[in-house]
Amino acid sequence: MALSGIQIYKLLPQTNCKDCGYPTCLAFAMKLAAKQAELALCPHVSDESKTELAASSEPPVRLIELKVGETVLKAGNETVLFRHEKTFYNMPGLFIRVADDMDDAAVDNKLAFIKDYLVNYVGIDLGVDGVAVEETSGDAGKFAALVKKAATINKPLILISDKADCVKAALVEVGDSRVLISGANAENVDEFTLIAKESGSALVVSGEGVEEVATLTEKIKEAGLNDLVLDTGGKTFGDKLAQYTIARKLALKKNYKPLGYPILELAYKNEMELELASQSIAKYAGFIVVDTYKAEDIYPLLVLRQNIYTDPQKPIQVTPDLYAINDPTPDSPLMVTTNFSITYFSVANEIEGSGIPAWLLVSDAEGMSVLTAWAAGIFDAEQVAKDIKKNGIEEKINHKTIIIPGHVAVISGELEEELPGWEIRVGPREAVDLPAYIKQAL
């Protein structure tokens, strides 16, 4: 049975040495109880306590890390079924497939896309996480050569093959990288377990349904390998959803260790790979492989993943500051908004697209939107006036006119009192109407 934070605290040294990275032993104990930290972080815990704490401190879904140089891709460590209960921690890695029966030009195009694709979404850079290299030829040399080429772009790798000789040849080409091997099943489990142990790789365990996979993971764990990923099979969307939910629910609610691992979804095997990838992002894959490398297909998946794995208790924020858009002069108009990322980018993109030079003052509203921050008493006349003085705006512009969002017109009178001599103009309610408003005001 899992121990409470206080029970764990009593088994810790209680020295508050901070060697674990937490300010106190109690704080560390609470993280252990929440399955958000590992006992190994404490170098001073006694052997007796280690034995008692080991089961309690293990996350219900094991953390799996793939490494390439300084790049580390994490999956697992999840503690809830639904993000609103707390949050999801490690978003699923998105991989694009290349196969050893593809021609060189096709492989090169895909690898170039995986390496270079980067898009900015509300201030966050999104890209493809890695390459899934599939053996389809049966030729160990050919597979190894493709893995060697894929390794040159320095992205995490998944090796897909159920042939031991092919996997062994490919592992020679990955150097010190830690990869994921997808190939263990009921027929080859002993051989693949040994390969993964010797190479320090994580291993995908494949079977038809959660029962068969759970039987195999128990066998592999007894052999001394615990860095595993599940592939429960399933032919339809419904089958996969049911199996993934059962695995996650048993791991979280029943602490059922044989299914306490991240899940791999080979979405490219389905004709509706994008729809399946979307479902798997939401429920409950740790690694997802698609075949497409069209930007218009990849972008929605990355945005969906980012939205689901954003901590609902921590709004996405931009840094409060004075932003110059379209090379403004001291005579350019000044506007103000909050530091909620979507609000900021909605306003900034409309101004930038209009080509109008302008100053945008972003006020610290703790990541809330305009109306929410105003209702909370955070985005008010006093705060705006304080930000104007803090950013030295009167020294940067030649006028004393500020445009406030239409939704908070009510603060205009108070702002006039806070900023004597300033003209307060009430702008439109929606960002899309800003360009027309500015042109008319000018």
How is this structure best described in words?
An eight-stranded parallel β-sheet has the order 10-9-8-7-6-3-12-11. The chain has a three-stranded mixed β-sheet with strand order 13-15-14, with helices on both faces. The longest helix is centred in the middle third of the chain and has 17 residues, at 237-253. The protein has three domains: 5-57, Electron transport complex subunit B, putative Fe-S cluster (3-methyladenine DNA Glycosylase II, Chain A, domain 3); 64-308, TIM Barrel; 321-441, Rossmann fold (3-Layer(aba) Sandwich), CATH 3.40.50. It contains 17 helices and 17 strands. The protein starts with a helix and ends with a helix. The radius of gyration is 27 Å and the shape is globular. The mean pLDDT is 93. The protein is α/β, with parallel strands linked by helices and 442 residues long. Helix 1 crosses helix 2 (25-33) and helix 6 packs parallel to helix 7. Strand 9, helix 8 (210-222) and strand 10 (228-231) form a beta-alpha-beta unit. Helix content is 39%, strand content 17%.
Please count the beta strands (DSSP E, at least 2 residues each). 17
Strand order of the largest sheet: 10-9-8-7-6-3-12-11
Q: Quaternary arrangement of the chains shown? A: single chain
Question: CATH superfamily assignment of the largest domain?
Answer: Dihydropteroate synthase-like
The gross shape turns out to be: globular
CATH architecture of the largest domain: Alpha-Beta Barrel
Tally of contiguous helical segments: 17
For the record, the count of structural domains works out to: 3
Query: What level of helicity do the residues show?
Result: 25-40%
CATH fold label of the largest domain: TIM Barrel
Give a quick account of the main beta sheet: strands, pairing sense, barrel closure: 8 strands, parallel
Nearest-integer average pLDDT: 93
Q: Report the span from N to C terminus.
A: 69 Å
User: What percent strand?
Assistant: 15-25%
Low-confidence segments, given as residue ranges, are: none
* Rg over C-alpha atoms, rounded to the nearest angstrom: 27 Å
CATH class of the largest domain: Alpha Beta
